[in-house]
Amino acid sequence: MRGLLFLLFLCLAPFWKSYSIGDIYIDRVTGKQLGTDGSKTNNLRVIDIREWIYVLEEKGGPNSMPGIKELHQNSSVITFNEYQIQQVIQRVTDDTTQEGLENQLFIVLNVNNGRVYALRDWSPEFKTEKEIMINTYRIGSFGAPRIGEGLMLLGQLHSHPKENHSNKINIRSVSEHDVEAAKSLEIPVFAVDAFILNDEFDSMQNHKNSRTSYIHLVNKTGVIKKFIGQTYGMNGLNTFNFSKYFDFLLRKENEIQQYYKQIN
């Protein structure tokens, strides 16, 4: 009987971690995981690392009741506004189609309240026919890129306009510039084919006669994935879900200890 139970343990053990209960804590500076608590929920939370260390040293750790209470009081649950993200992406795509210039937006995490949403870059001097500038800064050597006070940059999206030069053609993918930007900033970069339009749809929330366009991705290591989905269409078919994507990225095991070991 004991042998059977041990065999069952070996079979099930790899799956327990994937479905573990407990809130996951993200450091507000680096964007990396600090660890999980002993609560019965499975939220993502953003917190100051000093609060996390205080709980470790003074409150019995993140699995104790006092520790959980302290962590919840001093952190924010991370929430995603997928509807708003999709609306801004569609407007960026529409404007690129009409203007013939690249437009961009940022997917940001407000580390002060935990909200994840799209923030459009309205800087006209950064609009060009072929590439876009991304202005960021970091806090410390290991800080995640930021585009403003409290705004951690999780990802960038831009739209590729129709190529008007007779000796050039549009490539349905990310560009070499996109790959270098993703690797340098260590964020995913998305590119939308604003030069090829798909099914037409009408929406009170979007520009009239907006159409869906295909989306491509390069991750922070430079791996390219083409045709990962589309911008929002009439029936919402094949629409890429940015909230699920970034939720998955933040939940992946990428603990902060790996980064701080480089200091010692």
**Distance between the ends:** 48 Å
- Look up the CATH topology of the largest domain: Cytidine Deaminase, domain 2
Query: How many strands, which pairing sense, and closed or not: the largest β-sheet?
Result: 8 strands, mixed
* SSE order: HEEEHHEEHEEEEHEEEEEHH
Instruction: Indicate the mean pLDDT.
Output: 81
Percent range for β-strand residues? 15-25%
CATH architecture of the largest domain: 3-Layer(aba) Sandwich
Beta-strand segment tally: 14
Number of H/I helices: 7
- Uncertain stretches of 5 or more adjacent residues: 1-19, 198-209, 258-264
Q: What is the CATH C level class of the largest domain, in words?
A: Alpha Beta
Q: Give the structural class.
A: alpha+beta
